[in-house]
Each structure stands twice: as C-alpha cells, then as structure tokens.
Amino acid sequence: MTAREVQVTFDCGDPAALAAFWAEVLGYRLDPPPPGFATWEAALEAWGVPPERRNDRSAVSDPDSRGPRLFFQKVPEGKGAKNRVHLDVRAAPDLAGEERMTALEREATRLVGLGATRLERVEPGGLQAGHVVMQDPEGNEFCLD
Question: Where is the stretch described as Disordered (predicted)?
Fold first, then answer.
C-alpha cells in the first residue's frame, strides 16, 4: 500500500484566528488564495459567499511540504471534553534533561504570548523525556515535546 497524506482538522469557533495561531506555532503559512485571486476576500466575494460565512474555514500548510496540512472548520458548539487526539509539537527533539526542559519552557512562554495556556509540566524520569502540556486559544490540548 502507498503511504497516504494526512490532514489534521480542527472544529472551532474562529477558524481564521486559530489558523493564524497554529501557523505561528509551527512555522506554517496560511494557504494562498486560489489562482486568479489576489486575496481570499476577493475569491469569496466573487463566489458570492456572504460576509457572515467568510470565516467558516481556513487552512495552513508547511512551506517545506513535510508536515500535514491543518484545516479549521467552524462549528456551532464549543469544546466539551479533553481531546482524544492531540498534536505533539517537537520543540526540543534532540535535547535531554534540564536543557530540554529549559527549551520547552522558553517555547511555552512564547506560545502563551500568542494566546496559548500552559497547563502542566511533566518532569523527565523513567521512560518519560519530559514535556509541557498546553492548550491553544480554543482549549485544544497539545504537548511541547
């Protein structure tokens, strides 16, 4: 079987804001408007999408085409429980011990400045390399790993 591409989809209340947050976190870029349009606003206007529906979806992609595309779709309900699947953002993959935790704390501080919430620090020990549990601006959990 041939390997398949993966897209990660987020249900959310504000696709544009959440896409902008994750683009900053991962070094991704907002997907460009379709050919023939200088902006998404121009495309949506040409397609007759009413203004109140123009933030129904957004997407970001890895400029180097290594990571999966992230797609954000507006849903009417808020987040109700802990995620069953979450992203691990590899912020210190080659580091260990206190050096690793210092790098993770530095990244956690940066992301809090972008609107994330820091939930918990898990110390290294045993099989655990150590990580920091975070939430994005809409409450979706992710780990700095």
Answer: 49-71
Rounded to an integer, the average pLDDT of 113-127 is 93
One domain, residues 59 and 105? no
Residues 44 and 101 reside in one and the same domain: no
Whether residue 43 has pLDDT greater than 90: yes
What is the span of the domain harbouring residue 58? 7-74
The C-alpha atoms of residue 145 and residue 131 are separated, in whole angstroms, by 5
Let me know if residue 118 belongs to a domain: yes
Distance separating alpha carbons of residues 87 and 35, to the nearest angstrom: 31
CATH of the domain at 27: 3.30.720
pTM (predicted TM-score): 0.87
Same domain, 108 and 66: no
Q: Which long-range contacts (CB under 8 A, 24 or more apart) does 18-22 make?
A: 18/58, 18/72, 18/136, 18/137, 18/138, 19/58, 19/59, 19/60, 19/70, 19/72, 21/114, 21/115, 21/116, 21/136, 21/137, 22/60, 22/70, 22/72, 22/136
